[in-house]
Amino acid sequence: MSHHLWLRPRTAEADGIGHGNHKVSFSDSSKRDSSRPSASRTNSHNSSPRLLSPRGDKDRDRPRSQQLWSDNRAWQRVNRQSEALWQESPSVLSPSAPQPRPFLIYHDSFLSLLGPSPTLSLLISDPRAPYFHEAGVFHPATNTLFITSNQIPDTSPDAVTTSNKTIVITKIEFFSPTDFTRDKVRCPERNYMANGGTNFRDGIILCAQGSLREPSGLIYMEAKRPHKATTLLNNYHGRPFNSPNDVVVHSDGSVWFTDPIYGYEQGFRPKPQLPQHVYRFDPSTGDIRVVADGFGRPNGICFAPNEETCYITDTDVIHGDGTKVHSRPATVYAYSVYWTNDQPYLTNRRVFAYADTGAPDGIKCDVYGNVYAGCGDGINVWNSGGMLVGKILIEGGCANFCFGRNGEMWCFGEHKLWRVKLGDETKGSLLGV
Predict the structure, then answer these.
(1) Using one digit for the tens of pLDDT, what is the confidence trace for 289-318?
(2) 76 DSSP β-pair partners
């Protein structure tokens, strides 16, 4: 007989939830070395909440059936009491309540990632338009952050091919964590409808979703003014892409990107002529090939620090027309990267994680192999074994985010730009700064 009962995780400010004679306590991390954040698979039994019985050893003298019945009633009481405390206690933060320190800890290894004084602060709130949506590319040489907006109404004549929508690229140059300038990037070309992005050589690669007239594909944009843009790729052996969404660069120089049909669903791309694939493009040879398929809506993509695993998110739960069907995937898939004939293949597809709120959109790893994804309640963090170790709760959720220097993250909440400060050693694996 087993009892599948769930208790709320503790927060960074509370070691347990106590009420009356009952207490929910979490695993003691003092029995292991916690000097380094753990990215390895951890025994889930040791990380689950455990009930401390106020009856001591008296239960051992009772028949087993009575113990189970009593234990079950105790669990039910604790569940009801902890649920009430979640709503009432100021030391336990509800996702819907004001959150001065909104860090939920599901496993003690998350504490090492947070560091001694984690913070969440609002840098910009702009009600005019959703300027903070995707990409999130930090360029260390210029200390500059590039962000793409969500779709913004555009009544200009040349916006007819994008169904009167446009996307703005915001450029933020930092002089200190809170001292910065903000500007728009004015590319020579129009109507790229840029979305995801990543660092590439001395500049950045952006996913160009295209329009009813312009092809979709990948563009390279210089990080410095005048931000000259060059098309890298705009077709698969003569067939147009759907609307490339997110992109990552492998250490061998190849560019990997996802290609869902969101542009068609949102009215600014023609009817799809290709399945919703994940591609690998080699700029040095021009080789372009499919490396993964079978998705509802392939979205975010990243590699583990050792590049032996590739993570791809499927946001099929939310379609481009706004419909949500919760029986569809909101899933992070993991693939093993297998090399043969000097070429990488993705094999051993498996479910890595499922987002409990919204869908996992942008995805990245830290230098320890932990996996971060922007979800409907903020940033969800799993260790490399797929165990949820913590959350950074952000009002309104977070589609994408970006690592900066020394534990700094910027999170994109449409009209709001958030700054998160984790431990100094919690660095993004892409840049390692």
Answers:
(1) 999 999 999 999 999 999 999 999 999 999
(2) none
